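The protein record passed on for reference:
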Amino acid sequence: MINTLKLGQYNIPQQFILWQKSYTCAIIPCVQLMPGHILLLPKRYVSNFCELEAGENHQPENPDSIDQIYVHIIPRRKGDYQKNDDIYFVLENYDKEFAKQYQNTISSTNSFSNAAIEIQGQETKKYKTFLDQFWQEEYNQQ
């Protein structure tokens, strides 16, 4: 179990970690595009996915870019965006919005406030409970 996770240059407290295995974990991001949105990322810092070039992975010229591999898992619902592909425009600005929200929720000591950790921790617990119930139902059906 890790106490703090790094997502690029950002420290993610343990309370934000929804799920983890030996090499991978899932977090509830401080910017959620839809209810149920999570980020799946390696525990160790990885900036390249397979053989991707830096320009394919992130935008090094953009100071708001998160210099690490992560995957969005976003539940979709009919009509959640006016046009189905509109979500891709939102994703293009995700790193910038994440950086802005991250800066708004951390204290002057460059760490999350106790209140922010408590709120995010409660959200994470809800997701964990849901996943536990889901897996329990899946195993009982087999």
